[in-house]
């Protein structure tokens, strides 16, 4: 079995539709065919200021949402990043291998630090991609299921793994990004030229899965389309409608072509009303299931404890090999 590894931040509380369609949905599918490791990346979360109480609550909330989305602890390893100290330990080694220039070229860092003001961005935000490199390499992952915005970080992982292997001998698997073309980038409902994101989207453009279903329906119905009237997929000229068709198609399993036929001659309003209904049908049980997991924190914590134990067994072995290759004197 090939191995996959991926993570999600516990920062915003609710997952948004981009997180789900771009990443989490694939995680659920891949646990059937792959040896799957998924984590809530709380170490990444503190690259921007977090309230400690909220961070703890949001970490449980993220795990609850992953289970609600369909991750099954019998089929995958689900854990919290900070429960496995090897992440931070390997990250240091990788920090010492990465060039300052190559880290400076990470577009996500450039965007996020520009937003915060370069002087206010933390060093942690700068080295965040290197921590991600360590996350992936520790598990010898073959594939990394993520959205398009993470492609550059997986490329960096490949570069650093090759550099390490070249310098110290074959140690790490070279991972590949696993990015589904159709859902690689879900766009903001109000501004379909930008990705749906918790930091860049306005509340109306962002579908939070834990919002009141009524609010979600309203957001879908007021999604920006275009002045044309034809319902067809054309990402370049009709980005708003194309985004809605992608979402509709993924949530229902109908192909885009089927939807185009179904909506031939119909108005945008009809598409939005139907999609609003599809969305409500999706988020309502998702919210309920999330709440059920939250209502039983002991079970949730025990799932995470077992996950951490399984993850640590793999991570510790890789770290020990990496330390040995680097030349650290083994502790007796
Ligand atoms: N719009 C999106 N379309 C497709 N995939 C997306 N992902 C995020 N947005 C989209 C994917 O979700 C996974 C988890 O990402 P994250 O941990 O970075 O989650 P986030 O911080 O909630 O994502 P945001 O909203 O993108 O955060 P900001 O605004 O801070 O940048 C990843 O696999 C990601 O690709």
UniProtKB/TrEMBL annotation:
Principal place of residence: cytoplasm
Keyword set includes Glycoprotein: no
A Pfam family matched in the record: tRNA-synt_1b
Catalysed reactions, semicolon-separated: tRNA(Trp) + L-tryptophan + ATP = L-tryptophyl-tRNA(Trp) + AMP + diphosphate + H(+)
Leader sequence segment: none
EC number: 6.1.1.2
Name of this chain's protein: Tryptophan--tRNA ligase
Species this chain originates from: Streptomyces noboritoensis
Gene behind the chain: trpS
